[in-house]
Write a structure and sequence with these properties.
27% of the residues lie in helices and 24% in strands. By secondary structure, it is of the alpha+beta class. It has one domain: Alpha-Beta Plaits (2-Layer Sandwich). The structure holds iron/sulfur cluster. Iron/sulfur cluster binds next to helix 1. Its cofactor is [3Fe-4S] cluster.
């Protein structure tokens, strides 16, 4: 699963880092994807956390791909 954060949309609510802490971190006021985290997210629970984080991101800044 590919995942990224569009910084031009992110306004730094930090919700992604709380919902999926294995994948997202909060740095310099933005949500960021931890290096290598998404590629290793084959665990269905982690994938679900990523999907939920994307769905609940208040600015729809999380971009998912396969
Ligand atoms: S939940 Fe969305 S707006 Fe909030 S820090 Fe993460 S990417 Fe940015």
């Amino acid at each position: 699963m590919k995942v990224s954060v569009d910084r031009s949309l992110c306004y730094g609510s930090a919700e992604c880092a709380h919902r999926a802490p294995a994948v997202f971190a909060f740095e310099d006021g933005y949500g960021v994807v931890r290096p290598g985290a998404a590629e290793s997210a084959e665990d269905p629970r982690v994938r679900e956390e990523i999907r939920e984080a994307a769905e609940k991101c208040p600015s729809q800044a999380i971009v998912l791909g396969e």
